[in-house]
Amino acid sequence: MKTIQTHFVTNAATLRWLRILAAFEENPVCSTKSLAHVSNSTSRTIVTDINDLKAHFDDAVSIESSHRGYVFDILHPQQYLTAKRALIADELLFHIIESIFQNDLRSSLEWAEAYHISESTVLRYLKKIHPVLRMYQLKMQYSPVSLVGKESHIRKFFHDFYYESEITAHTIFPPIAVHDVTLTLFADCQQYLNQSCSFGEFNYYLYITLERFCSGHQVEQAPKLAALVTKQSDFIAFAQINQIIDQHYQEVLPEDELVHLFVLVFGRRSINDLRGEKNFCRKYNQYPKIKPLVHDLVETFLTDTRNAGRERILLESFFTVVYMKQLMTPLLNHNTPEVNTFVKESFPDEWRRVQAFFRAKSEYAYMWDAKSLTHIMSSLTLYACSIQSLYWQSHKNVVFLFEGSHFVCQFLKSSATRYIRRSRQFFFPDSNELSPEYFQRNQIDLIVTNYAEYAAEYGSIECLLFRPYPDKQDWESLEQKLDPLLAEPS
């Protein structure tokens, strides 16, 4: 469970179990001492918790004792996910957030009566989530219980809580009506706008926008941002979505709402289309300090590039989006805690180099909101690593030289040929493209995803479920799936 969500778990035992499971998911072999540390409990409590976990998950998992500690194995992934989600099915704070999102507001006393607990207990639980709300510059009111703060911040919280966080028993999914609207809008945006917002995220952005706006909550005006985007043909084409929304909801979004939604969707840029990104920068980069920042960043951070012009275009696009979001609210540039942790742990050298750059070039650090700089640096690190992964990898011609037994060499040659051929058959569809016909037409044998809901939805095809932020073990599992005979022995 993600950091944000754990603050909403009030049952101490449930919170320990979730932390133990998270440790097992990270490393299938854990000592009693390490589990006691991550769950902030004692070794005696761990023994009890392990027995209770075995009973709760039944045959979905195996937890065995060994000289190395406890050995954890998920035997039935879907059954495991269902049982894990059931752990927080009755958690009060998740119900409260859901009611706020759906504008079904109740007082703290009404929540106390519904759960047969005292009002003081409800208030104590609500105070537990204050640290999370402070991350979003929000506060809690109690009569009725609701979120107080800028509307754009409230929507950012809902996006992170329901879309970027782990799927739970309380996750709200966009209804069919929104899904149908998104199908039409997404196809139009893919055709006319050069952006890479996924269908799933587009769906959530639209759902949150419609749910909040139709409940009487409107985003704040951003005059500079509106002046920048509303004159552009991209925005004019995007604004046609009101015709489709009106057909389904008998509502139309005012300009401020359209600008906010446009920046969220249009700000999801792709690094695959240099011409498109160059055109994007030409139209939307109205901040003169971005170009010198990008020039210095390429000179000092991406020194090994063979195409500095390409990197300058892509980085200019990155910072143009950062600037546009800051005009709306700096909070839009913030990541969830897991993203920042993932970057620091997975790309420590690149992260330190980005940090060093902004320390040495303090004039660039002051371009952005101070609280946002760490988040921007994390996103920049991932963005630069994506550029390197896509463009810097040289294409290699591989020579296989096998000697020895004729039959062994023949087997190795056929295995190598099969492995290379299969390794090239990768598909990257968006979720709205998936159907039984798509799987059959492309002869799909394996789905690899880090989104648990897809593993459940497409259960007829073998599915490899990655962690939300894949690590070496996930990639090794994929290698094992692609060709068990060529995978390294464990």
UniProtKB/TrEMBL annotation:
Organism domain of life: Bacteria
Keyword list, A-Z: Transcription, Transcription regulation
Signal peptide: none
InterPro entries: BglG_antiterminators, Mga_HTH, WH-like_DNA-bd_sf
Pfam families per the UniProt record, alphabetical: Mga
KW Transcription regulation (keyword) present: yes
UniProt keyword Ligase present: no
Domain Mga helix-turn-helix: 85-162
Protein name: Mga helix-turn-helix domain-containing protein
Organism taxonomic ancestry: Bacteria, Bacillati, Bacillota, Bacilli, Lactobacillales
